[in-house]
Design brief:
Order of helices and strands of chain A: HHHHHEHEHEHEHEEEHEEHEEHEEHHHH
Strand content of chain B: 35-45%
CATH class of chain B: Mainly Beta
Chains: A alpha/beta (518), B alpha+beta (124), C alpha/beta (445)
Number of strands of chain A: 13
Structural class of chain A: alpha/beta
Number of domains of chain B: 1
Number of helices of chain A: 16
Distance between the termini of chain B: 29 Å
Largest interface: A-C, 214 and 212 residues
CATH topology of the domain at 108-364 in chain A: Aspartate Aminotransferase, domain 2
Distance between the termini of chain A: 22 Å
Largest sheet of chain B: 6 strands, antiparallel
Order of helices and strands of chain B: EEEHEEEEEHHEH
CATH topology of chain B: OB fold (Dihydrolipoamide Acetyltransferase, E2P)
Largest sheet of chain A: 7 strands, mixed
Helix content of chain A: 25-40%
Strand content of chain A: 5-15%
CATH superfamily of chain B: RNA polymerase II/Efflux pump adaptor protein, barrel-sandwich hybrid domain
CATH class of the domain at 108-364 in chain A: Alpha Beta
Oligomer: heterotrimer
Shape of chain A: globular
CATH architecture of the domain at 108-364 in chain A: 3-Layer(aba) Sandwich
CATH superfamily of the domain at 108-364 in chain A: Type I PLP-dependent aspartate aminotransferase-like (Major domain)
Strand order of the largest sheet of chain B: 1-2-3-9-8-5
Chain lengths: 518, 124, 445
Amino acid sequence: MSGWSQALSGFGAGKGESATISGNRALQIEEPLLFEQDAAGRCGVDLPEPPAVSDRLGGLGRKGPIGLPGLSEPQVVRHYTRLSQKNYSIDTGLYPLGSCTMKHNPRLNEKMARLPGFADVHPLQPQSTVQGAIELIDLLAHWLKTLTGMPAVAMSPAAGAHGELCGMMCIRAALDARGESRRRVLVPESAHGTNPATAAACGFTVDPIPADARGRVDLAAMKAKLGPDVAALMLTNPNTCGLFEGEIVEIARAVHEAGAYFYCDGANFNAIVGRVRPADLGIDCMHINLHKTFSTPHGGGGPGSGPVVLAESLARFAPLPWVVHDENGFRLIEEAEGPAAESLGRLKGNHGQMGMFVRALSYMMSHGSDGLRQVSSDAVLSANYLLAALQDELTPAFPGPSMHEVLFDDRFLKDTGVTTLDFAKALIDEGYHPMTMYFPLVVHGALLMEPTETESKDSLDRFIAVVRGLAQRAKAGTAEAFHEAPRFTPRRRLDETAAARKPILRWRPGEREKVAAE
Amino acid sequence: MTVKYTEDHEWVRLEGDVAVVGITDYAQTQLGDVVYVELPAVGWKVEKGKEAATVESVKAASEVFAPLTGEVVAVNDELSGEPGQVNSDPMGKGWFLKIRLADPKDFDGLMDEAAYRAFVEGLG
Amino acid sequence: MRYLPLTDADRQEMLATIGVSSVESLFRDVPPAALLARPVDLPKAQGELEVERALSRIAAKNVSAGSVPNFVGCGVYRHHVPASVDHLIQRGEFLTSYTPYQPEVSQGTLQVLFEFQTQVSLLTGMEVANASLYDGATACAEAVMMANRVSRRSKAILSGGLHPHYREVTETHSRFAGFSVAAQGPDVMGTEDLIPLIDAETSCVVVQNPGFFGHVRDWTALGEACHAAGALLIVVVTEVVSLGAVEPPGAMGADIVAAEGQSVGNALNFGGPHVGLFATRDRYVRQMPGRLAGQTVDAEGRRGWVLTLSTREQHIRREKATSNICTNSGLCALAFSIHMALLGEAGFTRLAALNHAKAVELADRLGKVPGVEVLNRSFFNEFTLRLSKPAAPVVEDLAKAGVLAGVPASRFYPGLADLLLVAATETVTEEDISTFAEKLEEILR
C-alpha cells in the first residue's frame, strides 16, 4: 500500500451523508494515538551526548527497549492541541455540574503558582532556605481558620476524599485516646460515595440514615440511631440536594450528647463562605476542597487539595507535618514529637499541595473578606434564579430556597420516553456540559445544577431558555431525537458495556487490527 | 425439574443434593447489561443469606447471596468471557454456581414459581 | 470584583424573578445566630497588581533550587521540563475541565489518560496502569491495601530501603485499616535479605528500586520467594527517570508497581502536587484503586474512550470500594504524558544515561574530598555519602555558601547523623560539581 492510501487507515472515517474522506469534521480533527505516530529515533527534545563513564548500575542496566514512540515537538504540540479541542471546559461555557463547583479559574493564580520561589523549591531543602514557603502555608491556614471559625487546620491532604480520610482518622485517634472502641458511623443516603468509602477505610462500619420529605436529615431517625457504639456522623452541609440542614445545631448537640463526633463534608462550602462559619454550627471537623470553593483548577480530574479544619478536641491528632512559628521563624515539625506527639502520623509524601495552596491564597486575597461574601451571595442567588425560572417546566425535587445548587427529579419527563440521561445528552448538543445526573440517590432520575457565581445573567438566561426548550420538546413527544443525542460531538454515545466486558486499558501493537477483525 | 426462588431474585434448581443457582430474568432486567460476574472458588463454604458472588453492570454492583448453605462444587467459568449470558439466558447458560447442600431439605423452604411471580408483582 | 459578572441591576432583577426582596432571605434556613452580619476579619479585595506584589514578596524569601548548584533528591527531582509542556497543560480545555464522566465531551482527557496508562505500563514493564493517584507515597499505601485484598492476608513487610515517607504513610493506613506492617530499619548498605521474613501470613513485600540510599538491586529472587509463599512483590520507584536505564520492576517479577512520576513533566512545587503512578498485572485489575480509561466504540462504530470498570470506585461501590479516592492528579499526569511524548524512546533513554553519567562524575569527584566516603557500589542518580562530620550542619553551612547539598539522612533517621544523600540530574553542570566539592572540602577541613 502506498503511503497516502495508508495515511488515513488510523482514522475514524464517518458514515452517512455527512461523511468526509478524512473522518474530520472541520474543526473537529481526528487524532490517532501517540503510539500510532511513532518513527524510530525521532525525538522532541535535544539532549547532549552523555559523557562516557563506566556504569554503576550493578549489572542491572535495562536489557530491552521500552516501546515509547518517537515524535517531534510540532507533532506533540499538535497532538495535544487537537485533543484539548475535544474537551468541554469552564473556559468554553457554563458547566452546571452539581456539587462540583465549576467556577472560573483566574489566571493570576496560575502565574503566582509558577513563581520560581514557589514552583522551583524542593521540599527537603534546609528549612532556612524555604521560610517563604512555610509562611505561605501558615498564611493560607490563617485564612481557612478565620473563614471557618475553627482553631486548627491540617494542610497536607491531597484532595477532598483524602481530607475525609484525615478527618475520620483524627476521630478514630481521639476515640482510641479516650479508650473507646466506637465503630459505627452514620451517613445520610444522599451522601457522596467518598463518605462511606472513607469511613470503611478507617475501620468504621457505615449505617445509612434516611432523608425526610424535605430533603434533609430525618432528625428523629438520626437520633434513634445514636448510641454508645456510634463514632461519628458524616454530614454534607449544605447537603447534596442543595439544601441547608436547618436543624444542624440540634443535630450537632444530639451527636455530641451521644459522645460521638460531627464530621462535616465541606464540598459545598461555596454556598456559605464568608457568611456562615461552620464552627458556629457545632461541627468538629470539615474538609475544604480548594479546587471547588477556592477555584484551583480541576485539571480534568485533579490535582486537588483538601485541608481539614479541626476543633480543639481533634487538633492534637492532626497529621504531620505541622507548621509552627516562633522567634526563629517558621518551622515544620516532621516527627510525632513535642507538640505533635499525638499526631496520627503522615498521610502523604512531603508537606501538602503547595501549588494548590498558592493558587487558593491568590484567589482569596483577590476576593478579600468582602468579595468572598459576595461569592456565596451570587452563587446562591444564581441557583435560586435557575429554580425560579425552571420550576414550572421542570420538577424541583424539594421546595426552595436552594443554596448554591438546585435539584430536579425526572417527574417532568414521565411518559415522554426521555430519560434524565437522554436529557443531559441533548444538552450537550446545545453547547452545554450536562448537570450532575442520577445523584443524589434519594430522588428519582436526579438532575443537580450548580451555576456558580461566575456566570453572567445573560449566560444564565440563555441556559434557562435552552433547558426550558428541551423540556418542552421532550413533552411534545420527540423522544427519538433525544435518544440520538448527542449528534454534534467528536464521538456519539459510547458503548460502556463493551468497554467493561472486555477491557482494553492500554495500547498494544496490533490491537487495532485485532479489534477490527473481530 | 423443580425450580424454586428467593426474595433476592435467585433461582435454585435441585439436582440430587446439588443446587444450581443463578439470578432470575427479573433480576437481569433490573441490572441491565451484565459486564462481570465474580464467583467464589470451588471448595468454599457458603452460608444461606451471606454473599456468595457479585454481579456487575456498568453502573452498579450487586451481591448475590447464597440461597442455601453448603459447599461450592462448581462455578460457571464461561461467564468470565461471556457475562452477557446472564442477560440472554439467565435460567440456562447464565447459571452462577453449584452448591452441595448441607441439608437438602432446606430447598423446600424456598418459594415456588407461583409465589415468586406474586412476589415480583407485589414489587410493582 | 473582577471575577463576578453580576451587576447590582442583574441582582435586583433576579431577586424579583425569585420573588424575594434580598439575598438574605435565601439564607433563611441558616440558624440566625450563625449568620454573620459583616465580613470576617481578613483583608479586603485586592487587584492583580497588589496580590502579585504580596505573593512575590513571600516567594522571594525562598531559595529556588534552580538559582544555585542543587543536589537535593530523596524522591523529588529537579529535571528540565520542555517549554511546550507547561504551555499545553495551560490550555483551558485541559486546565478547566472536570473529571471525564461525560465521554462525548471529554474525549481529549480520556485519550490522554489511555496514552498515560500505556506509557506507565511500558515504563514499569507491567500489563496495566491506572489514571494516577495523589503521589508515590499514597500509591505505596494503596498497593499494600490492594495486596491485602488479593492475597486475603494482612501482613506487609517493608524494606529498609523504602523511602521513610512511603513507610510512614503505609503505617498510618495500617493502624486504621487494620493490617500489620513489619518495617525494617534503614538499609544503608543495600544488603538486607527479606526472604527469610516471608511466611504464610505475608500479603506482600515492599521494596524500592533504586532504594532510598541509592542502591540498585535485583529483586527477582525475592519475587520468586513471594510467589512461592502466595505473597505479592510490590516495587516502589521514586525516581521514574531511572526506568530509562535500569531493568523495570515488571522484569523482576513485580506484581504491583507504585511510583512517583514528578520527575517527568512536573516541577518541584515544594512537594506537591505530584503524581502517583500505579501499575499491576491484568489478573488483578479489578482490585486496583483509582480511575481507568478504556477503549470502546461509539454509536457510529468509531473508536473512542470512556472511564471503565467504575464499579470498583467509591461513587458506585461506596463502603465496599477498592479505595476512597476520587480526585487524582489528572493535570500532573497530563504533564508527565506530554513530557514523555516529547522524549520518546530515544530521548528518555538518553535522559536516563545523562543522569547516571552526571551522578558517576559527582560520586567520583566527591569521593576524592578528604572526609567523604561514597557508600554505594551501585546507584542511578543518587547515592549516600558518609561524612567526617554530622551532615545536617554541613548542609546548613553549604546552603549559606550557596549550595543545596542534598538531604542529611538524619532528617528521617536521627541516628544516621553522618550520612548525606546527594543526587545529580541532567540539570547539574561541571561547575556545579566543582563548586560543591570545593565548598564541601572547606567545610569538612
